[in-house]
């Protein structure tokens, strides 16, 4: 049974989330106080965190940052207000996997939770790793291993969240092919939804920052204006 933490100080929203998540068979722990939630999350591991931003005593952005430093893999779904565009951007930059804008439907929330848990479980190490097929990609000085889920640049391991690794590996597997934001949402997050393309933009920006080459360039991922993104071998691109 997956154990989900709901960090939400609005009693009506928390009650609604708790009811529907329990109906899906999830174990639920709820916190209304930000600092209480932060301390608990630093001491215990959970399968997914539903995290509001505006909280008493410690805001959700600070909790997200601390939690991501402790556990790069745990899925974090942030809950934001309609006018909280800046908060959504910052939350994604701090390592949140996705966000929902209030007010939201429980059907959509449940779909997001299921997609994040499914992706997280697929990324988790198996009990018998010798039976797991591993694919290694080496492109220029970048190395990706799907079995160990390790990404290295110039022999130095890059710290990636589970979603960042999935997105990078997917693009690298299909290098040269252009993907729209909605296609990447569907392939990596498990759904496509108009208005959430910014999730892709922010993850791409984070990857570019982490993939900066020794010459100061970060050109493994290119923007195809009006379409989306593609992965390229920068050495080959330089020669073309």
Automatic annotation (TrEMBL):
What SUPFAM superfamilies would the database entry show?
C-terminal effector domain of the bipartite response regulators, CheY-like
* Keyword terms, alphabetized: DNA-binding, Phosphoprotein, Transcription, Transcription regulation, Two-component regulatory system
DNA-binding region, residue range(s): 134-233
Q: Which Pfam families does this chain map to?
A: Response_reg, Trans_reg_C
Cellular component GO terms, alphabetical: cytosol; protein-DNA complex
**PROSITE patterns xref list:** OMPR_PHOB (PS51755), RESPONSE_REGULATORY (PS50110)
The source's domain of life comes to Bacteria
Q: Which GO terms describe its biological process?
A: regulation of DNA-templated transcription
Drop me one GO molecular function for this one: transcription cis-regulatory region binding
The family database entries (Gene3D superfamilies) matched by this protein are listed as: 3.40.50.2300, 6.10.250.690, Winged helix-like DNA-binding domain superfamily/Winged helix DNA-binding domain
Stretches assigned to the Response regulatory domain: 3-117
- Residues that the record marks as modified (4-aspartylphosphate) are 52
Domain OmpR/PhoB-type residues, every copy: 134-233
Which InterPro entries does this UniProt record tie to the protein?
A: CheY-like_superfamily, OmpR/PhoB-type_DNA-bd, Sig_transdc_resp-reg_C-effctor, Sig_transdc_resp-reg_receiver, WalR-like, WH-like_DNA-bd_sf
**What is the annotated role of this protein in its UniProt record?**
This protein is a positive regulator for the phosphate regulon. Transcription of this operon is positively regulated by PhoB and PhoR when phosphate is limited.
Could you identify this protein by its name?
A: Phosphate regulon transcriptional regulatory protein PhoB
Q: Record the organism.
A: Leucothrix pacifica
């Amino acid at each position: 049974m997956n154990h989900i933490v709901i960090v939400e100080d609005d009693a009506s929203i928390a009650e609604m989330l708790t009811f529907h998540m329990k109906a899906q068979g999830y174990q639920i722990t709820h916190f209304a106080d930000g600092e209480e939630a932060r301390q608990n999350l630093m001491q215990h591991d959970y399968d997914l965190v539903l995290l509001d931003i505006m909280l008493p005593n410690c805001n959700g952005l600070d909790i997200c940052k601390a939690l991501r430093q402790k556990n790069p893999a745990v899925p974090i779904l942030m809950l934001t207000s309609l006018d909280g565009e800046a908060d959504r951007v910052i939350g994604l930059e701090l390592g949140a996997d996705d966000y929902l804008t209030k007010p939201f439907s429980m059907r959509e929330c449940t779909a997001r939770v299921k997609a994040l848990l499914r992706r997280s479980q697929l990324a988790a190490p198996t009990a018998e790793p010798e039976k797991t097929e591993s694919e290694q990609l080496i492109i220029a000085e970048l190395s990706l291993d799907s079995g160990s889920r390790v990404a290295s640049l110039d022999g130095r391991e890059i710290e990636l969240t589970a979603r960042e690794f999935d997105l990078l590996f997917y693009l690298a597997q299909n290098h040269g092919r252009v993907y729209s934001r909605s296609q990447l949402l569907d392939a990596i997050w498990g759904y496509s939804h108009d208005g959430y393309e910014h999730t892709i933009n922010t993850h791409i920006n984070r990857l570019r920052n982490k993939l900066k080459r020794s010459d100061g360039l970060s050109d493994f991922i290119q923007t195809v204006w009006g379409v989306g993104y593609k992965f390229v071998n920068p050495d080959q691109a330089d020669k073309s």
